[in-house]
Input
Amino acid sequence: MTRTVFVTGARGKTGREVVAQLAERGDTEVRGGSSRGSQEPTTVAFDWRDRSTWPKAVNGAHAIYLGRPDVQDSPELVTQLIAAAPDAHIVLVSEQGAEKVAADGWVRRVETAVTRNATRWTILRPSWFQQVLTDPRYFLDTIRRDRTITLPTGGAPIAWVDTRDLAAVAVQAIVDPATHHGRTYTVTGPEAVTTADLAAQISTTIGAGITAVVPPLEASLAGAPPWLAEVAGDMFNRVHDGTFAQVSEAVDRVAGRPPRTVKEFIAEHADLWRA
Ligand SMILES: NC(=O)c1ccc[n+]([C@@H]2O[C@H](COP(=O)([O-])OP(=O)(O)OC[C@H]3O[C@@H](n4cnc5c(N)ncnc54)[C@H](OP(=O)(O)O)[C@@H]3O)[C@@H](O)[C@H]2O)c1
Output
């Protein structure tokens, strides 16, 4: 084994793909972190809220795949984790268009926690994940049961990225820190697609009518804690202004192959929505 890598959120939409792709290489000891404890040999207990779990996860790690914790004190938590692993190469998952966020905005403060404190770092700014369409906490059940996709996009398209492609970029950064240290990559799919396009493509593929619902942004954010309403509101404003529709070539350039299309993702997962 040439390197040890700690992967946060190893059961999550991106972390599980990073774990799988690193494990396939055969040259990497992978520690996949889960707040639900270690259930497989490659899993280590890791809870952002329980510092006693951190040393076993990070000690001796050459690199950390850091799925940004979406909590208010994320900048402080990320700073503290890096202090516990000062020599590790940090590969952070941020979000598309972070460069348009004010320097004192939450998204940028998380990035700065990495770029200021880590010895080596790579920032990934992905578009929205295609996998939200099959995630039970997002759209799996609404598509399957209600036949709707509800998103306050204002009708703007999004360059949806497959998390397997994001993971492929992350893995290249992890295994080749000399090339990717100090780099920031916007990571997208190959085309921008509106929610209406998405609904139409799923409808055609599964032979059932899916309706795209585009509610006003204010209604969607009502009741959210103030910091979250601000962060999510800012993100949706970047959807509305077309920032999330911009297509990047990072998957081609860094992973060496084209990114998967939404159409391919829908064809591959159609059975999940037919049930
Ligand atoms: N979803 C998108 O379209 C999208 C687009 C761009 C950027 N992002 C960003 O990408 C990052 C990852 O998002 P995601 O959608 O991939 O997340 P996700 O699928 O929800 O995965 C997050 C993981 O974090 C783990 N977790 C939960 N509580 C934890 C705790 N207290 N301590 C440690 N781990 C904990 C969970 O696994 P366990 O329960 O096993 O711990 C979960 O698997 C987020 O910052 C998100 O904002 C998301």
